[in-house]
Specification:
Elements (H helix, E strand, L loop, with lengths): L1 H9 L4 H18 L1 H17 L6 H50 L2 H5 L3 H43 L1 H8 L1 H11 L1 H27 L1 H6 L3 H53 L5 H43 L20 E8 L8 E8 L4 E6 L5 H8 L7 E6 L2 E2 L5 H6 L1 E4 L10 H6 L7 H10 L3 H6 L17 H15 L3 E5 L7 H15 L3 E5 L3 H5 L3 E6 L2 E6 L1 H5 L4 H11 L2 H9 L5
Parallel strand pairs: 3-8, 3-9, 6-7, 7-8
Antiparallel strand pairs: 1-2, 1-4, 4-5, 9-10
Helix pairs in contact: 2-4, 2-6, 3-4, 3-12, 4-6, 6-7, 6-9, 6-12, 8-11, 8-12, 9-11, 9-12, 11-12, 16-18, 18-19, 22-23
């Protein structure tokens, strides 16, 4: 019950639509109760005529017109209510989608590290669709069910209270049987949802990396993995459906017996003269009318169970508390020089395993520093902590003597530009992607950034220039073109601190040269932290920081470390020998040979 109340509360801001739909539903329920009364009136007049009495023919015509008007009224009311229901549905979808999206944007990187993209999307779609269907069902069916039942029982009680009493006993019997099946049905549904989420997650992964799938000729394997999940869905649906319908047969048979008793009672009492023919027809009509809401209980309970089971994951995601939040009274980061300091930083993705274990170093304002270390030693972790995607376990990170935990996340990230090794572009135009670094930038600024990034020339060669569509993740651009767009985006952001996951290691020589020129312009005057993938890049920095065992192994200029017999000196030697063992060692440090 608590879960159902939460569903209603979630859309409480749309109460006007609920009220509107409710009013039309109640009117519709009331109007549907009038036809049996008008029918009874007409039959009573005709019965008088058949028994030799005098019938009021005009009154029979009036009843016929009234039946027609109630038909017209139901048509109008159902469609007006349906329109409000449609608007309620779409507004609720928008509201829930926005809240879910807003919630996801507030969650830390660690949440996405453990979730498949397809599962996140599937939970949203399933939760939103189910809640929307449930609210619409309640608005259109539940209120009508309640008021139709109340109106029917009151009218029947006026004419035959024993019949009303028998019809009333239907509800606790039917609801009791239905609730009894609820928990077992939801258990099946949880299994189904889990398999559907996994299938959607794999589907999204495969489509997102379709080149890999095709190049390794794994289409059949991916299809089998996807199909296997759906086979489990089918296998679980079979006993779930069998269980539900077996119970439904029992419920309905009990109701059929009660209706048999009602009909026998009405027919016998009419035969004994207790009820007239018109009253008999009225009671039979109302008994048939009440069958609809009675049997609708099965549908209502089924939808309620689906709403509870299918929104569980949605609400669990909505209940996740952001691990990283601004402190109360957090100030805006003010970067005057760009001094970055890591002070005895300890961190681990798993509490039992430390990636960084007392890491300390300083980046002077305007300095270009390269992080060097074997794969898994924490180079990317250092940059993620600087952006505060994760919280340090202990120690501190400061920028111009301001602890990044004491400033707002927005101001922190607005002062740090990032160029990833794999350029992260969005579908849309080239202009959109460059302006992502500064959405209010002028055309002049966008072009200036593109020129500085060595991108303007190739952009002009496209038929639509800056308005050219680049496809999902920039699929219509070459690797070098994508990198230069990403650099232009960072240039436009114009942040005083730069994180550079060196983006030239997978490019051809010509593209690398153009990208490297753009990077040099980007780094000019900025405090830059580089995850280096080429020794040529490392040789051109002001300071090298080597990491080993989660700590700084050595710090110094390229010339100093070349003579230190440390990690950097070892890498220089390995580059010169050109052996397979040397190349293997370089790869351990993620350095291109």
């Amino acid at each position: 019950m608590k879960h159902i109340l939460r569903i209603f509360k979630f859309g409480s801001s749309l109460w006007r639509y609920y009220v509107g739909v409710g009013v039309f539903t109640i009117l519709l329920a009331g109007m549907s109760q009038l036809q049996p009364l008008f029918t009874k009136g007409a039959i009573d007049q005709v019965t008088k005529l058949l028994s030799g009495g005098k019938a009021d023919v005009f009154l029979v015509g009036v009843f016929a017109v009234l039946i027609f008007l109630t038909d017209v009224g139901q048509t109008l009311l159902s469609n007006l209510g349906g329109y409000l229901g449609d608007m309620l549905s779409v507004k609720l979808q928008r509201l829930m989608s926005q809240r879910y999206y807003e919630q996801l944007m507030s969650l830390p990187q660690s949440y996405f590290d453990s979730e498949l993209t397809g599962k996140i999307i599937n939970r949203m779609n399933r939760g939103i669709n189910q809640i929307t269907d449930f609210i619409q069902m309640v608005s259109n069916n539940f209120l009508q069910f309640i008021f139709s039942t109340v109106f029917t029982l009151i009218i029947v009680a006026i004419y035959a209270w024993p019949v009303a009493l028998m019809l009333l006993t239907l509800y606790p019997i039917f609801i009791g049987f239905t609730i009894k099946t609820s928990s077992k049905w939801q258990g099946y549904q949880r299994t189904i949802n889990e398999e559907l989420d996994n299938a959607s997650g794999r589907f999204a992964e495969s489509i997102g990396q379709i080149k890999v799938v095709k190049s390794f000729i794994q289409e059949i394997r991916e299809l089998k993995l996807f199909s296997r999940r759906y086979e489990k869905v089918v296998a679980t649906t079979r006993p779930q459906s069998r269980f539900w319908h077996r119970q439904d047969i029992i419920r309905r048979l009990v109701l059929n017996v009660i209706f048999l008793v009602v009909f026998i009672y009405v027919f016998i009492e009419t035969a004994h003269g207790v009820y007239g023919v018109g009253t008999m027809v009225l009671l039979i009509q109302y008994s048939m009318l009440i069958r609809i809401p009675i049997f609708s209980i099965s549908f209502l309970v089924d939808q309620s169970q689906r709403a509870i089971a299918n929104t569980k994951d949605y609400f669990e995601a909505m209940d996740v508390k952001p691990e990283i939040s601004d402190k109360k009274g957090a100030k805006r980061l003010r970067v005057k020089a760009g001094l970055v300091e890591f002070n005895d930083v300890v961190f681990g993705y798993d509490p039992t395993v430390k990636v960084l274990n007392g890491l300390s170093f300083t980046l002077e304002p305007g300095m270009k520093a390269a992080l060097v270390g074997e794969s898994g030693q924490g180079k990317t972790t250092v940059t993620s902590l600087l952006l505060r995607f994760y919280e340090v376990t202990s120690g501190s990170i400061t920028i111009d003597d301001q602890d990044i935990n004491d400033v707002t996340q927005k101001s922190l990230r607005s002062n740090i530009g990032v160029v990833f090794q794999e350029p992260a572009l969005f579908s849309g135009t080239i202009r959109d992607n460059i302006a992502y670094g500064s959405p209010t930038a002028s055309e002049k600024d966008i072009i200036a950034a593109a020129k500085s990034a060595n991108a303007h020339e190739f952009i002009q060669q496209f038929e639509s220039g800056y308005d050219s569509e680049i496809g999902e993740r920039g699929i219509r651009l070459s690797g070098g073109q994508k990198q230069r767009i990403a650099i232009a985006r960072a240039l436009l952001k114009d942040a005083p601190i730069l994180i550079l996951d060196e983006a030239t290691s997978s490019l051809d020589t010509k593209s690398e040269r153009r990208v490297q020129e753009a990077l040099e312009r980007l780094m000019e005057g900025r405090t830059t932290l580089i995850i280096a993938h080429r020794l040529s890049t490392i040789a051109g920095v002001d300071r090298i920081i080597t990491i080993d065992g989660g700590k700084v192994r050595e710090i110094g200029s390229p010339s100093q470390l070349a003579r230190s017999n440390g990690i950097y000196a070892e890498l220089l030697k390995l580059q010169k020998v050109h052996t397979k063992a040397g190349e293997k060692q370089l790869k351990r440090f993620e350095i291109a040979a």
